[in-house]
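ping. complex inputs:
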Amino acid sequence: MTPNDVDLAVKAPSANGQSSDTGPFALDDTALSGGYTAYVRDLGDGRHALDCMVEGVHCGGCVNRIERVFQRTENVEKARVNLSTRRLALVWSGAADRADALCSAVTALGYRLVPFDPSRLSDEDRREEKELLRAMAVAGFAAANVMLLSVSVWAGYFGDMGPATRSLLHWFSALVACPAIIYAGRPFFRSAWTALRHRRTNMDVPISLGVILAGAMSLHETIVGGIHTYFDSAVTLLFFLLVGRFLDRRARGRARSAGTRLLALRASSVTVLRDDGTRVFRRPEDVATGERLLVGTGERVGVDGTILNGTTEIDTSLITGEAIPKVSGPGDPVFAGTINGTAPITIEATGTGDDTLLAEIARLMEAAEQRRSRYVELADRVARHYAPVVHGLALATLIGWIAIMSAPWQTALLHAVAVLIITCPCALGLAVPVVQVVASDRLIRRGVLLKSASALERLAQIDHVVFDKTGTLTDGTPELSPVPAEHRVALDIAAGLAASSKHPLARALARAAPDAVVVDGVEETPGMGLKLDTDDGEVRLGSRAWCGVAAMTSTPGNANSPSGPELWFTSPGREPVRFAFRERLRPDAEEVVQRLRDRNIGIEILSGDRADSVARIARTLSISDWRGEVTPSEKCARLEELSRSGRRVLMIGDGLNDAAALAAAHVSISPSTAADISQTAADAVFQGASLSPVIETLAVADRAATLVRQNFMLAFGYNVFTIPLAVAGLVTPLIAALAMSGSSIVVVCNALRLSRRKRS
Amino acid sequence: MSALLYLIPIALFLGLAGLVAFLWALRSGQFEDLDGAAERILFDDDDEPEHPSKDQR
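pong. complex structure:
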């Protein structure tokens, strides 16, 4: 994996063989047929284009397979998969509804396609990154060539280079350096200007000032035929700083906007039922409230609504985190983003587009993200004090030389500029980004993707951890509790029936008895259970009411009871047998919780699941602070409460109901089996079935914090050593350039120490 | 010394050519998909000989 591989969101099928990002039900893509045409763009002269996000692409082999499908297809002008962004771009000539045939050729291979409208996605980040890259290229070219000329000039000091030659070389330097400074310095000038307009100073103000003054002064010296010019320092400074900024931006760029992932969560198109009975495909945002929609089996619900007819099981794991689907019938609400599991239903839209619960959660998230972005990083805090000090020093040097040493103003200015250049934070600009890049790289190799640049800093500060339960502490799949020996025969028969159902409890049952004989002729009634007619009579497997067992306190039709999820099994001539299910904790959950405790970190559980199942898990892990049945806004409220009492919270969660909380916590981590939008909200995403990456990440964050502090000390050390030299007027361009390069190299080498394995 | 008068501009010009080439490549989108480009060289597109008569023409 490379740091470019941001898509840990695309998961390999989980252990039970299904794609875990859609919950217990496999998404039936034939339900989407007819839905692609809604996003086709008309390019004119009979050509059409469609862009889709492709899920399931891992490597070049996948790209090849997909593109091959189109190689022999007629009239397809372009079919290209971008591996870095996981997008498929199609251009063809012909009718717009060829889209369906073309896309089903791809989905037949097993990839999921989600069409989108490219004009909706703001590629702001990429444009800025490109601009930085261009500036870096120009600065690099200029730095190399100007250095070439400068070395010649320095060599000339020791030989007998005449003033004419030196002047010529200066003029060439000026020719290269001045345009380069104007072009490559723009990112810094812009940022400095914005800060000044708001009457603040940031790191870019002394940088811009130093570079511009150095360039202007050197130009002046060139014109009057002076001895010293600082073109090389100015341009080299720009180059190193741009490298630092580029690395920094790369580290930040991992956080894709919530918008991109939200698109993948929404249905791409919905089927609207018109009054005359015809069906039409539309985008979810174009549906008005009150309209009737048809939601097919396995389809993702596109809008918030109420069921008009049909009874089905809805996978609400996205909203509540529960793995067991909820039975819903006429009059029950459904939410956009959930999946309709077992039967087609007709719904009436009650909330569309921005009014859906999904959109509300996205808004909660964005509000929290905004609050988070006000976190001022260490580097910026340093800059706030650094800039005024540097300016003060330069001014003092200028005045000092004129007043005390009675030097001509040109000499004084020269020395003041030398002070500005030598204090320019070349090493400071690199200190933090380089450590972040090295730390990210090390974490990637352990299966942890860092999505935010300041995450490392924040991770090193935490003193409290909040866990979600389902999918985070547990791995989200139910497990059959051990069955006493006298029920083993019943288990085998039940497993034979269960194999034909996709219900998660049935699957768990089937997993527990893998050698059971699978039987045919099993009938499934959604929300109730399975039945099979045998020679001896009717065999039933399902909820309490389905099997005719006397109801105690559970509601009919619901597979859950106060004592946990259960399935009842009845067969003629036998007592009804109860199969109980429990959740599976992640294998190292206990160990991880203990290690967190060893670090004196407070732990608590906040879960949307039922109180008794949370209580059970809390007891197993010896966690005394826990809450169940918590809504998304209550989670946020609890986090605010914690942060007001001064605690720095690490939130670990995976469901959509955690997304807002993930954004609101001081720092957050999400497992890669999480809902896409939670991965976007979290600062880091970790892969794999174990929780140990959390401990790893904390360890790396601590080490990174140490190295950043060391780097700052090195950078300031170099400053402290060279500033007196500059003030005393002893800094020549040669020394300035050497000092700058030297300090940058030292800082980078120090950061590389992070990737060396520790002896422990 | 007179050599410098034309050697340096030549050197600068060559450097500039390199820079222009890089910027053009950046603009024409060749850096959009570095992972994909790396993998594409491994694709094994064997075209079956559909029209053998074409070769003999």
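Chain A touches chain B at residues 2, 4-5, 59-61, 63-64, 68, 71, 81-85, 130, 133-134, 137-138, 141, 144-145, 148-149, 165, 168-169, 172, 175-176 (CB under 8 Å).
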